[in-house]
């Protein structure tokens, strides 16, 4: 039979083993390799201060993204690219206001102010982004009758943007997601990336959320459940 000191020693060892992975992960910088890609989600004028769907503190993600992008050989950017009169706009639903919901054939849809309309200044990427080596821009949400949050799939869950095929063709195995907004386009992108078989990290301080009726907490919970890893920009090794 084990005595009290032996039991305590075993418990102490168990506790250290439990804590060790977390401590080790926090203390070790992540070095993106050729199988890694940074996905910069919807850093567009409409989502920045003065925009029609401005995300609080949205502009603060830009310098963080610019910094971490230097660590990546592979960078993909996305743009919301809506048609005029898009089904996701509250303005096309009589009696409805922004942030209310409607039921559409593909499910429940949050209604938004008109934003990121094709060819407008609001749809343009922020002029302060400095990522000249970004190799691809994915435009999404251009089908008038279906919204698109994810960089991988439209909101119907089956219409592909082609991004998964592109990344797999480039032999990318892990993706790092940053941009706007955490609880919508970032989270949906991260979740679909996991479904597509990628290892996924969301860079928390390189994102900002809308937080509509608890949506931010739910997004983080959904991502954690799916195995998405939540990190900070300081966890990524960036050369000086």
UniProtKB/TrEMBL annotation:
<protein>
    <recommendedName>
        <fullName>nicotinamidase</fullName>
        <ecNumber>3.5.1.19</ecNumber>
    </recommendedName>
</protein>
<keyword id="KW-0662">Pyridine nucleotide biosynthesis</keyword>
<keyword id="KW-0479">Metal-binding</keyword>
<dbReference type="InterPro" id="IPR000868">
    <property type="entry name" value="Isochorismatase-like_dom"/>
</dbReference>
<comment type="similarity">
    <text>Belongs to the isochorismatase family.</text>
</comment>
<keyword id="KW-0378">Hydrolase</keyword>
<feature type="signal peptide">
    <location>
        <begin position="1"/>
        <end position="26"/>
    </location>
</feature>
<feature type="domain" description="Isochorismatase-like">
    <location>
        <begin position="36"/>
        <end position="234"/>
    </location>
</feature>
<dbReference type="InterPro" id="IPR006311">
    <property type="entry name" value="TAT_signal"/>
</dbReference>
<dbReference type="GO" id="GO:0008936">
    <property type="term" value="F:nicotinamidase activity"/>
</dbReference>
<dbReference type="InterPro" id="IPR036380">
    <property type="entry name" value="Isochorismatase-like_sf"/>
</dbReference>
<keyword id="KW-0732">Signal</keyword>
<comment type="pathway">
    <text>Cofactor biosynthesis; nicotinate biosynthesis; nicotinate from nicotinamide: step 1/1.</text>
</comment>
<dbReference type="Pfam" id="PF00857">
    <property type="entry name" value="Isochorismatase"/>
</dbReference>
<dbReference type="InterPro" id="IPR052347">
    <property type="entry name" value="Isochorismatase_Nicotinamidase"/>
</dbReference>
């Amino acid at each position: 039979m084990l005595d009290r000191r032996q039991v305590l020693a075993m418990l102490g060892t168990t506790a250290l083993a439990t804590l060790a992975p977390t401590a080790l992960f926090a203390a070790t910088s992540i070095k993106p390799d050729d199988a890694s890609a940074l996905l910069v989600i919807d850093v567009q004028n409409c989502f920045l201060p003065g925009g029609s769907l401005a995300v609080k503190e949205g502009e603060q993600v830009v310098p963080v993204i610019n910094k971490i992008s230097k660590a990546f050989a592979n960078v993909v950017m996305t743009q919301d690219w809506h048609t005029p009169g898009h089904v996701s706009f509250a303005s096309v639903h009589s009696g409805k206001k922004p942030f209310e919901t409607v039921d559409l054939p593909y499910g429940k849809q949050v209604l938004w102010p008109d934003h990121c309309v094709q060819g407008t200044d609001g749809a343009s990427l922020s002029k302060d982004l400095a990522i000249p080596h970004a190799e691809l821009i994915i435009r999404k949400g251009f089908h008038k009758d279906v919204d698109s949050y994810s960089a991988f799939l439209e909101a119907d869950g089956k219409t592909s943007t082609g991004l998964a095929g592109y990344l797999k063709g480039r032999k990318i195995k892990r993706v790092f997601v940053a941009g706007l907004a955490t609880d919508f386009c970032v989270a949906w992108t991260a979740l679909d990336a996991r479904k597509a078989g990628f290892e996924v990290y969301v860079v928390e301080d390189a994102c900002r959320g809308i937080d509509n009726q608890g949506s931010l907490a739910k997004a983080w919970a959904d991502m954690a459940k799916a195995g998405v890893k939540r990190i900070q920009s300081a966890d990524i090794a960036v050369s000086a």
